[in-house]
Amino acid sequence: APSKVQYDAARSCLYAHSIFAGESGCAYGCLGCGDCIVSCQFGALSIDEETRLIKVDKESCVACGACVKCCPRNIIELRNVGKGGRHVFVSCCNKEKGAAARKNCTVACIGCGKCAKACAFDAIAVANNLACIDDTKCKICRKCVAECPTGAILAVNFPVKQQQL
Question: Structure pTM?
Fold first, then answer.
């Protein structure tokens, strides 16, 4: 989400969360102060300079959960991955209704339910205006990714399809 204001106070996610919605105005988004980076004893986290979001170095991460515990917005989660590290997930945590969520972020989940309808495995439920994928039911078919109108559902580590001429 693009910045609307600039946060210029203590560089602590916990502190910022207690007084501030975030630079983008999204009360559910990453605050970017880096508490999770400090909590990681393995150097597996960094901030992507372009997106200003946390990046995980999969080679260094040992899934200890320290970053999960320190995030005041409960954004970070440990996810199961499939064969070849493939997984599908909802990249949004915003529980606001569609229009309000989109006001702050162009890739917010709007809770429309199109992904749940497209899923033949009943792996997606929409609650509190947010889609949630059940890893135990998901067969990583990616139909939900194609169906999501905002791009809030991402597929990771899949081969790129070659375009036919």
Answer: 0.81
